[in-house]
Amino acid sequence: MAALELLSAEGFRPDGRRPAELRKLRARMGVFAQPDGSAYIEQGNTKALAVVYGPHEMRGPRSKALPDRALVNCQYSMATFSTGERKRRPHGDRKSSEMSLHLKQTFEAAILTELFPRSQIDIYVQILQADGGNYCACVNAATLAVIDAGIPLRDYVCASSAGLVEDAALADLSYLEEAAGGPQAALALLPTSGQMALLQLDSRLHEDRLGAVLEAAGGACRAVHAVLDRVVREHVRELTALLGD
Amino acid sequence: MATAFKTVEPLEYYRRFLKENCRPDGRELGEFRATTVNIGSITTADGSALVKLGNTTVICGVKAEVAAPAVDSANKGYIVPNVELPSLCSTRFRSGPPGEEAQAASQFIADVIENSQIIAKEDLCIANGKLAWVLYCDIICLDYDGNILDASVFALLAALKNVQLPSVTINEETGLSEVNLKQKNPLVIRKHPVATSFAIFDDTLLIVDPTAEEEDLATGTVTVVTDEEDRLCSVHKPGGSPLTGAKLQDCITRAITRHKEVKKLIDKVTKSIKPN
């Protein structure tokens, strides 16, 4: 059996996208009443939910409070029914812990934590349906949720993955493309300043190719930024219309 | 002024409303919150449903797996419900192992499945003594605003109605199972249990579909589960203030009325997604 062709001779990917094309991105802010901020995002078939509580007083041991800035607490979990095979542990396994840590590091770089010393900000993300780019969907959803909570950010944090197939850089990988095992990177970018909040490259890649992969991921992040910005502006417009009544 | 009064004297605040036969959110005492259901939105699950009861949001995903049936019930499959109340849904829940409320809810759902015979477990058997379906029904609360039991039972029922199982045959010669993913069959839902919850205020007053705030202030709660033949599947009253038989009868009558509304809603939604 021939291996799955990730990029056809005509330059199309298995789902019919061009190399630099993103999957359909849909998002909504303020989906829940209980938390301070919430957002739901769909990137192709990946569906994620982010909820933000805070900034609030420290919960748990007060000794953990930081004297000069807020503590960012992230928790990533995947619904048991989100993957093809049923997941036995929705959170607390190594991969989820790693993902939680990455989210925490990403948002510590973006939130103006020094404005809230000795307090805590909780970011919870839940994957409802997984189809590649889980980390990226979580970052994008969490950004919207943090904005919905009214917590000041340096900039939007936009994330996208990129991979390399036969010298061509592909943006926003689906599960099928991720599972093929080629080199891939996840990038979280602060688009206005062009600064990277997080870059993770797990597989071997020649340094000459890194530029192409980063460029593809960066381009995708900026495209995500355009969509997120539109969602935020629309949401604010709706809110002000409601207030105006 | 009103918010200050509410913060200082929440119970008295509520009593003032209840005296006028209404509630702070504008409902009457016997009125349910707006209920919506969305079926089949999670494609990785074999069946799924999202239920909103006012602000309370619950999602149920059903995953089917095959396993060997238990020795003492060779012709039966398994249904494994699990209710999750993650810290995401409310500040009152901590992350970590499931808390008391989540465990109690899981057990309640398990009892409802058992008592109502929503699905005959024999229907889940593929080959007697060899192979049977296991249905993992994971219910996750996404936004907690009270009355989690009603929402969970509703989401479970809607998700089970959405389940499509591939047909499995056992090859006589090799003894191996063959799965035909092209031919999918819906589950046979034998009964439609619907839960209706009440909060008891000051030992006498009954209000339906309590919010989280109302649950906290109430002196007790009652949950009644009925099926479409108006038979009781479960009456759950975890302690709290005592209730007279007449009041309980009142609850049951209201639960039967509620069942008809919910059944109508679920039929409407399943019909609307069928043509695709």
From TrEMBL, chain A:
<dbReference type="GO" id="GO:0016075">
    <property type="term" value="P:rRNA catabolic process"/>
</dbReference>
<comment type="similarity">
    <text>Belongs to the RNase PH family.</text>
</comment>
<dbReference type="GO" id="GO:0003723">
    <property type="term" value="F:RNA binding"/>
</dbReference>
<dbReference type="InterPro" id="IPR050080">
    <property type="entry name" value="RNase_PH"/>
</dbReference>
<dbReference type="Pfam" id="PF03725">
    <property type="entry name" value="RNase_PH_C"/>
</dbReference>
<keyword id="KW-0963">Cytoplasm</keyword>
<dbReference type="GO" id="GO:0000177">
    <property type="term" value="C:cytoplasmic exosome (RNase complex)"/>
</dbReference>
<dbReference type="InterPro" id="IPR027408">
    <property type="entry name" value="PNPase/RNase_PH_dom_sf"/>
</dbReference>
<feature type="domain" description="Exoribonuclease phosphorolytic">
    <location>
        <begin position="155"/>
        <end position="217"/>
    </location>
</feature>
<protein>
    <recommendedName>
        <fullName>Exosome complex component RRP41</fullName>
    </recommendedName>
</protein>
<feature type="domain" description="Exoribonuclease phosphorolytic">
    <location>
        <begin position="21"/>
        <end position="152"/>
    </location>
</feature>
<keyword id="KW-0694">RNA-binding</keyword>
<keyword id="KW-0271">Exosome</keyword>
<dbReference type="Pfam" id="PF01138">
    <property type="entry name" value="RNase_PH"/>
</dbReference>
<keyword id="KW-0007">Acetylation</keyword>
<keyword id="KW-0698">rRNA processing</keyword>
<dbReference type="GO" id="GO:0005730">
    <property type="term" value="C:nucleolus"/>
</dbReference>
<dbReference type="GO" id="GO:0071028">
    <property type="term" value="P:nuclear mRNA surveillance"/>
</dbReference>
<dbReference type="GO" id="GO:0006364">
    <property type="term" value="P:rRNA processing"/>
</dbReference>
<dbReference type="GO" id="GO:0005654">
    <property type="term" value="C:nucleoplasm"/>
</dbReference>
<comment type="subunit">
    <text>Component of the RNA exosome core complex (Exo-9), composed of EXOSC1, EXOSC2, EXOSC3, EXOSC4, EXOSC5, EXOSC6, EXOSC7, EXOSC8 and EXOSC9; within the complex interacts with EXOSC2, EXOSC7 and EXOSC9. The catalytically inactive RNA exosome core complex (Exo-9) associates with the catalytic subunit EXOSC10/RRP6. Exo-9 may associate with DIS3 to form the nucleolar exosome complex, or DIS3L to form the cytoplasmic exosome complex.</text>
</comment>
<dbReference type="InterPro" id="IPR020568">
    <property type="entry name" value="Ribosomal_Su5_D2-typ_SF"/>
</dbReference>
UniProtKB/TrEMBL annotation, chain B:
<dbReference type="GO" id="GO:0000177">
    <property type="term" value="C:cytoplasmic exosome (RNase complex)"/>
</dbReference>
<dbReference type="GO" id="GO:0034473">
    <property type="term" value="P:U1 snRNA 3'-end processing"/>
</dbReference>
<dbReference type="GO" id="GO:0035925">
    <property type="term" value="F:mRNA 3'-UTR AU-rich region binding"/>
</dbReference>
<dbReference type="GO" id="GO:0034475">
    <property type="term" value="P:U4 snRNA 3'-end processing"/>
</dbReference>
<dbReference type="Pfam" id="PF01138">
    <property type="entry name" value="RNase_PH"/>
</dbReference>
<dbReference type="GO" id="GO:0034476">
    <property type="term" value="P:U5 snRNA 3'-end processing"/>
</dbReference>
<keyword id="KW-0698">rRNA processing</keyword>
<dbReference type="GO" id="GO:0071028">
    <property type="term" value="P:nuclear mRNA surveillance"/>
</dbReference>
<dbReference type="GO" id="GO:0071035">
    <property type="term" value="P:nuclear polyadenylation-dependent rRNA catabolic process"/>
</dbReference>
<dbReference type="Pfam" id="PF03725">
    <property type="entry name" value="RNase_PH_C"/>
</dbReference>
<keyword id="KW-0271">Exosome</keyword>
<keyword id="KW-0539">Nucleus</keyword>
<protein>
    <recommendedName>
        <fullName>Exosome complex component RRP43</fullName>
    </recommendedName>
</protein>
<dbReference type="InterPro" id="IPR027408">
    <property type="entry name" value="PNPase/RNase_PH_dom_sf"/>
</dbReference>
<dbReference type="InterPro" id="IPR001247">
    <property type="entry name" value="ExoRNase_PH_dom1"/>
</dbReference>
<keyword id="KW-0694">RNA-binding</keyword>
<dbReference type="GO" id="GO:0000467">
    <property type="term" value="P:exonucleolytic trimming to generate mature 3'-end of 5.8S rRNA from tricistronic rRNA transcript (SSU-rRNA, 5.8S rRNA, LSU-rRNA)"/>
</dbReference>
<dbReference type="InterPro" id="IPR015847">
    <property type="entry name" value="ExoRNase_PH_dom2"/>
</dbReference>
<feature type="domain" description="Exoribonuclease phosphorolytic">
    <location>
        <begin position="193"/>
        <end position="256"/>
    </location>
</feature>
<comment type="similarity">
    <text>Belongs to the RNase PH family.</text>
</comment>
<keyword id="KW-0963">Cytoplasm</keyword>
<dbReference type="InterPro" id="IPR050590">
    <property type="entry name" value="Exosome_comp_Rrp42_subfam"/>
</dbReference>
